[in-house]
Design a protein that fits this description.
The strands form three sheets. The protein has a two-stranded antiparallel ribbon with strand order 1-6. The chain is mainly α. The chain contains three helices and six strands, in the order ββββββααα. One of its GO terms (biological process) is mRNA transport.
Length: about 300
């Protein structure tokens, strides 16, 4: 596929790049060189896309191409002003006016030098653009992956913040309940203080009874010490009597009388214990008799009433 730029009008269907007249400008400028005369000729191409006669799919391209072609060069050391013939070549593709439609595009090119864009150069450009697009796509995918990671992180942090907010709300409710309980306890404490106030006043008014109470405690302690002393004395007396009884003769009438008295004392103690037991039984029997009597009276009243 070739793009031809010439003076002959060419009717093409699809995508065309019409060109305008090619102008070549030559300027002569003094130059300082270490050799002979040098001249560089540059081909200046001004390309523009005029409005197409029929509607087509337009492409906006703006490029600048400079081509320098050296013609001759000499070697030598000269200090002279030489002229350099340069021609600036500028290829400009103006923005076309395009609409989306189907049809044929007719472009006319003026006369001038023809330049062709072969398929290899177009393929190289397309390959370069494809590589750049792939690089941009990789960069976009990397950035999209990073953005997705940040998004997941933000979502996780948002969920954590929501959970923390719920926990704070629960703590606030528990704090409010605790405050209510503390207020209730404070009210009870105030009531207790109000109840204790008259008791404290009464205790202050009854301060005269404290010395009497202390005197009674002192007397009780004295009685306790005296009883302990008496018990010790009784133990000593009993031990002494037991020792004397061991040394006594069994044939002594006093010993026999003592044994008889001990037997009588044991009998009296047994009689006393049995009497107390019989008295408790009698009380129980009397209570049962009273209970039965009351039940009989109640049943009698219920029967005849």
């Amino acid at each position: 596929m070739n793009f031809n730029f010439g003076s002959t009008p060419k009717v093409a269907g699809g995508f065309n790049l019409p060109s305008s007249a090619v102008t070549t400008t030559t300027t002569t400028t003094p130059a300082f060189s270490l050799g002979g005369d040098s001249s560089a000729s540059k081909l200046s191409l001004n390309l523009s896309l005029p409005p197409a006669t029929t509607a087509g799919l337009g492409l906006q391209l703006k490029t600048t191409t400079a081509v320098a072609v050296p013609t001759s060069s000499t070697t030598g050391f000269t200090l002279a002003a030489s002229t350099a013939s340069t021609s600036a070549t500028t290829s400009t593709v103006a923005p076309p006016q395009s609409v989306l439609a189907t049809g044929t595009t007719v472009s006319s090119a003026s006369s001038g030098a023809s330049t062709s864009l072969n398929f290899c150069q177009l393929e190289e450009s397309i390959n370069k653009w494809t590589l750049e697009l792939e690089e941009q796509e990789k960069l976009f995918m990397n950035q999209a992956t990073q953005v997705n990671a940040w998004d997941r992180l933000l979502i996780g942090n948002g969920e954590k913040i929501v959970g923390l907010n719920n926990a704070v709300e629960r703590v606030k409710l528990e704090q409010q309940q605790l405050d209510n309980e503390l207020d209730f306890i404070l009210a009870q404490q105030r009531e207790l203080e109000e109840c204790l106030a008259p008791l404290e006043k009464e205790l202050d008014s009854n301060g005269v009874a404290d010395p009497e109470r202390e005197h009674i405690f002192q007397m009780a302690e004295n009685m306790d010490t005296q009883l302990k002393q008496m018990s010790e004395d009784l133990k000593e007396i009993i031990e002494h009597l037991n020792e004397t009884n061991r040394t006594q003769d069994t044939s002594d009438p006093i010993v026999q009388i003592g044994r008889i008295l001990n037997a009588h004392m044991n009998s009296l103690q047994w009689i006393d214990q049995n009497t107390a037991l019989i008295a408790t039984h009698l009380e129980q029997v009397s209570k049962l008799h009273d209970v039965h009597r009351r039940e009989n009276e109640r049943s009698f009243h219920l029967t005849y009433d």
